[in-house]
Amino acid sequence: MAADQWLTQLQENGYRLTEARRIVVEAVEKSARALTPIEVYDIARKKYRALGLVTVYRTLEKLEELHLIQRVHQPLGCQAFISAGEGHQHLLLCQNCGQVAFFEGDDLDVLTESIAQKTGYQISEHWLQLFGLCANCRAD
Ligand SMILES: [Zn+2]
Ligand SMILES: [Zn+2]
Question: Which residues constitute the domain of residue 52?
Answer without folding.
Answer: 3-83
